[in-house]
């Protein structure tokens, strides 16, 4: 891109700022477009365009890279008002650096004081979830549950069934939550060993169930117990 002339306005574009985590108006510092095409000897062909941009958010001034791609296989056909067939090519956009996770609950940072290994497992699990890698997310949920039971003092050599029974016996969970965590365990097993991939709604429900358990077991429960000594005793 050639340097700007004095008084010349810089080109702008709408893009997803990784710092603001939303679409913003950005200055375009550089842009290049690459067209490509592939074909074989049987008459099959695919073509597309990749666009690369160096952008700066006009709000927070973060500089980032964006790649926008389209190809002839990613197309939706529709009829216009005259009945003629039109094509709408979908675009896949990726930015670097990626936005920081907005999925993590507010209490996530407190987990480091409880168990660093458990927090690391959860951190990688949220990265998988944010990137729509739902098989890895399901496996991560099962792994996090396994580690959580160990932190609560349950024998690591037990089967998952025994661990959940121990959680219930210790008063950490009730009947309904035991059944819910059994589903989380089964989902992780199916994803790891049978190639099952949950959809967006299914993985979201599994994640919520796990977060409810972790928050009560490690965050809310401990906070409530810490108040016990501050409550005045009942007079005799």
The gyration radius over C-alpha positions equals 26 Å
Helical content stands at 25-40%
Number-wise, the strands total 7
CATH class of the largest domain: Mainly Alpha
Q: What is the beta-strand fraction? A: 25-35%
Architecture per CATH nomenclature, i.e. the level-2 architecture of the largest domain: Up-down Bundle
Number of helices: 6
Q: How widely separated are the two ends?
A: 84 Å
Strand adjacency order, main sheet: 1-2-3-4-7
Determine the structural class based on helices, strands and strand pairing.
alpha+beta
Q: How is the biggest beta sheet arranged?
A: 5 strands, antiparallel
* Rough outline: elongated
3D structure, described in words:
This protein is α+β, with helices and mostly antiparallel strands and 236 residues long. It has 2 domains: 85 residues, no CATH class; 120 residues, Four Helix Bundle (Hemerythrin (Met), subunit A), CATH 1.20.120. The protein has 6 helices and 7 strands; from the N terminus they run βββββββαααααα. The strands form 2 sheets. It has a 5-stranded antiparallel beta sheet with strand order 1-2-3-4-7, with no helix packed on it. Strands 5-6 form a two-stranded antiparallel sheet. Strand 1 and strand 2 form a beta hairpin. Helix 5 crosses helix 6. The radius of gyration is 26 Å and the shape is elongated. About 2% of the residues have low confidence. Pfam families: DUF4145. InterPro entries: DUF4145. This is DUF4145 domain-containing protein.
């Amino acid at each position: 891109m050639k340097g700007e002339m004095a008084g010349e306005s810089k080109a702008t574009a709408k893009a997803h700022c990784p710092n603001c985590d939303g679409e913003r108006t950005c200055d375009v510092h550089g842009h290049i477009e690459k067209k490509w095409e592939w074909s074989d000897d049987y008459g099959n062909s695919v073509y597309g365009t990749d666009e690369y941009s160096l952008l700066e958010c006009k709000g927070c001034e973060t500089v980032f890279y964006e790649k926008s791609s389209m190809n002839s296989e990613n197309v939706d056909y529709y009829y216009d008002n005259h009945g003629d067939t039109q094509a709408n090519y979908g675009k896949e956009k990726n930015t670097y650096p990626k936005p920081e996770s907005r999925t993590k609950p507010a209490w996530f940072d407190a987990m480091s004081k409880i168990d660093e290994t458990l927090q690391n497992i959860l951190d990688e699990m949220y990265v998988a979830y944010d990137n729509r890698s739902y098989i890895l997310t399901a496996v991560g949920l099962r792994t996090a549950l396994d580690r959580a039971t160990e932190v609560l003092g349950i024998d690591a050599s037990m089967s998952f069934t025994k661990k959940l029974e121990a959680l219930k016996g210790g008063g950490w969970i009730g009947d309904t939550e035991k059944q819910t965590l059994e589903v989380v365990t089964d989902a992780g097993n199916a994803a790891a060993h049978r190639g099952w991939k949950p959809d967006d709604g299914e993985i979201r429900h599994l994640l919520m169930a796990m977060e409810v358990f972790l928050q009560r077991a490690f965050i809310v429960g401990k906070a409530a117990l810490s108040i016990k000594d501050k409550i005045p005793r009942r007079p005799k």
